[in-house]
Design a protein that fits this description.
mainly alpha; flat; two-stranded antiparallel ribbon
Length: about 160
């Protein structure tokens, strides 16, 4: 990202973040897929004859990345790639990853369990699973394209 600072005549400073063409297309693509996944999630509840129970799985979509991010923030930092001593215990990061995986599996398994108990219809399960897979895939694509570039910039060999 390129940060540009402009000064107005009123001494106000505005900062703009300039994106490359590849980053802009990636951001637009990720947002479109998130909207598509949300649309499938809403369709699982809104079509005639369906009820609102598949919407419960969208709570897991919000909760799933939070323990992983918290664990990544609390994880001890490694200064460089080759010459660093062991950075300490990464137990918190591992627990965050485990809880995030629990939320992910719970979100994907909730609707089939509700369908098995005949609380929701099979069509709602299909819409909900398609929406969940699209949402998680778009979040992984965001992490792959945008967070991996930042990680490469901050890495040093020595």
């Amino acid at each position: 990202f390129l940060h540009t600072t402009l000064h107005n005549t009123n001494t106000k400073t505005q900062t703009f973040i300039m994106l490359s063409k590849k980053q802009a297309f990636g951001l637009v693509g990720v947002s479109c897929f998130l909207a598509l996944g949300g649309t499938f999630q809403i369709l699982a509840c809104a079509l005639p004859g369906y009820n609102w129970y598949p919407l419960i799985s969208s709570v897991f979509y919000v909760l799933a990345p939070l323990p992983f991010l918290l664990g990544a923030l609390l994880k001890p930092k490694q200064q460089n790639l080759f010459l660093a001593a062991p950075a300490g215990n990464a137990f918190i990061a591992d627990i965050g990853t485990f809880i995030s995986a629990f939320f992910l599996v719970s979100a994907l398994a909730l609707c089939p369990v509700l369908a098995h108990n005949q609380v929701i219809k099979i069509g709602a399960v299909i819409y909900s699973l398609c929406g969940g897979i699209i949402i998680y895939a778009s979040l992984m694509a965001y992490a792959f394209f945008f967070l991996a570039e930042k990680k490469e910039e901050n890495m040093s060999l020595f």
